[in-house]
Amino acid sequence: MVVGVFQNTLHHSFLFLTVLVRRFLIWKNGSRGKQVSPITDPILKLSAVELASKIRNKELSSVNVLKAFIARVDQINPLLNCVVDNCFDKALEDAQVADDLIASGKYTSEELADQKPFLGVPISTKDNIRVKDLLFSAGLWTRRFVRAHEDGDAMALMREAGAIPFALTNVPELCMWWECLNPIFGHTNNPYDTNRISGGSSGGEGVIQSAGASAFGLGSDIAGSIRVPSLFNGIFGHKPTKDTVSLEGCFPPPSSVEQGSLLSIGPMSRFSCDLRPVLKVLTKSKSEILGLEEHVDIKNLRFFYQKDDGGGLFVTPIEEDQQTAMERLLDHLSAFATTKPVEAKLDELKNSFKMFMSNFKDNSGIHFDHQFANYDGYMNPWIELMYWIFGKSNHTIFSIFVVLMDKFEATYGSPKHSRLVQEKNNLRSKIQDLLGDNGVLIYPTQPSCALYHYETLIRPYNISYTAIFNCLGFPVTSVPLGLGVKEGLPTGVQIIGNFNKDRLCLAVAEHLETVFGGWVEPGKF
C-alpha cells in the first residue's frame, strides 16, 4: 500500500511538472510558430506511384519532375532544415538516362512497370542509410566527414527499381532520440508549426515528405523512428515485420541478432498507395511470404483497440486531439465493419518502456556510451554533461541523457532483465493469439501531437507507445487522421498486425485514407 501511494504521488508530481514545462514553452515560444509555404506546383502533389506511371507513359519527364522537387527543397529548407546533403547534379543525369530509356522504346510501359516500377521518381532517405557518395554521419560529430562508398541494400533495391536518390535528410545524433537535433546540422522544424518538433529519428524524412519536397522516402525504425515522424508530420509510414528487410548499410549496425530484430527499414510517403509497392521492392524474395498481392477484405477484418497504455508511471495521458481522432476512427469502424471493434485490454503495455530497454540489451559488450564514441573509446556522460553546460560538448543533451538512462536500466542477464524478457515474450504470444490471421490492433502512435522543441526531455517514456512493437517485432503502419481541432496539428494512430500480416496494416491504411483524407497539406491554415 505504501508503495502504491508513493507511485501515485510520484505520477501526479510528474504530470504537474509536464504541465509547467508546457506552459513555460508556450510562454517562451508563443503558441504558434511559422508554417511552410503552400505547394504551388501540381507535380509535387502526386504520389510516387502516379509519378512513375506518368513518367513511363511520357506524360511527364523524369528531368522535369526532379527539377520540381529540387526547387521545392530550395524553397523550404531554410525554414525547416530537413535536407543535409544532396546529389542534385548526379540525380539530373540519372533522370535524363531514365527519360532516354523510355524514349528508346526498348521496353513497353507494362514491362517498365513490372521491372522498374519507380523509374525516374526522386527518392530521399535519412542520414544513417547509406547512399553512394552522400554523407553517412548519422548526426555524429566524429562522422561529419564520412561519406558512403556504395548504396546500402535498401537503397540499392530502390535504385534497381528505377528510383533516383537525390536528397539526404536530418536525424538525431546516432538516431537515438525522437527529436531531430544533432551537433552537425542542428534542429529540424515541423512544417505545420516551426515551434514544434519533427519527431525522430527519421525526422528530416518526415518533414521533407510532408512539405512536398520529395516523392517518397526510406526511414529506419528501432523505437518508433518511422512512425513518430509520420504522426507528427501527418504522413504514412510502415515498420515491416522483423527480419524481412535487409539492414546492411544502416548505421549504427545492430550489435546482436536480437537487437537486429528491433530495427526495420521501411517506406514513408504522403500517400498510402506508395507503401505497398515500396515494401514489395524492399522485401524482394520475402514479399511472397508477406502476401502483398493478396486481396484484403477490410469489412471482415477483426478490429481490436486500446486507447492508452494503461497508465505507465512516467507516461503522459492521451491528449484531447489524439483522443478525439481515436474516437472518430472507432465510430467509423463500428458502422463500417462486419463486427464492432473490441477493446484489447493489454494491461502489460504499461511496462512497455522497461520491456523495450531490457530487450535492447545484449551480451555483445557494445553499449550506448561506446556507440556515441563512434566505437572508438567511450563517452563519459557526466563529463559530457559538464561540457554541455558550458557549451563545449560535441554531443546533444539528448545523447547524454540516453547514455545516462541506459546505465540505470536492468543489466543483461540479471534477474530483472530475465523477468522483463519473459514478460515481453508473454505479451507477444498474447497479441499473436488475439490477432490471429485476420485481426489488427489500433493503438495511439503517441499520447500527443507534435511536442515543442526540447519537450521530449520531460516526456522520454512516451516513446514506449511505439518502441514496444519493435520489441515484439510486429508490422505496424502509422496512419494520419487529419488535423486536431485544438492544436491544428496532425493526429493519427498505429495499425498493428500479426507477423507477416503487413498487408492487413497497409490495407487498413489505404481504407482510412479514403475516409479521413490522409495527409493534409501544411501551410494552408
SSE map:
Blueprint: H1 2-29, H2 48-56, H3 62-80, E1 83-86, H4 88-104, H5 109-115, E2 122-126, H6 153-160, E3 164-169, E4 181-182, E5 186-187, E6 189-190, E7 193-197, H7 203-210, E8 216-221, H8 227-233, E9 236-239, H9 257-262, E10 264-269, H10 275-283, H11 287-290, E11 302-305, H12 320-336, E12 342-343, H13 352-360, H14 368-371, H15 381-389, H16 397-408, H17 415-435, E13 439-444, H18 464-472, E14 476-483, E15 490-497, H19 502-516
Please describe what this structure looks like.
The protein is α/β, with parallel strands linked by helices. It has two domains: 1-31; 32-284 and 301-361 and 409-516, Amidase signature (AS) enzymes. Helix content is 42%, strand content 13%. The protein has 19 helices and 15 strands. The strands form three sheets. The chain has an eleven-stranded mixed sheet with strand order 1-3-2-8-10-9-14-15-13-11-12, with helices on both faces. A two-stranded antiparallel sheet has the order 4-5.
Essential attributes:
single chain, 525 residues, alpha/beta, Amidase signature (AS) enzymes, 2 domains, eleven-stranded mixed sheet, 19 helices, globular
Largest sheet: 11 strands, mixed
Strand order of the largest sheet: 1-3-2-8-10-9-14-15-13-11-12
Radius of gyration: 22 Å
Strand content: 5-15%
What count of domains describes the coordinates? 2
Oligomer: single chain
Structural class: alpha/beta
CATH class of the largest domain: Alpha Beta
Spans with pLDDT under 50 lasting ≥5 residues?
Answer: none
Q: Level of helix content?
A: 40-55%
CATH superfamily (homologous) name of the largest domain: Amidase signature (AS) domain
Number of strands: 15
CATH architecture of the largest domain: Alpha-Beta Complex
Number of helices: 19
Overall 3D geometry?
globular
Terminal residue distance? 51 Å
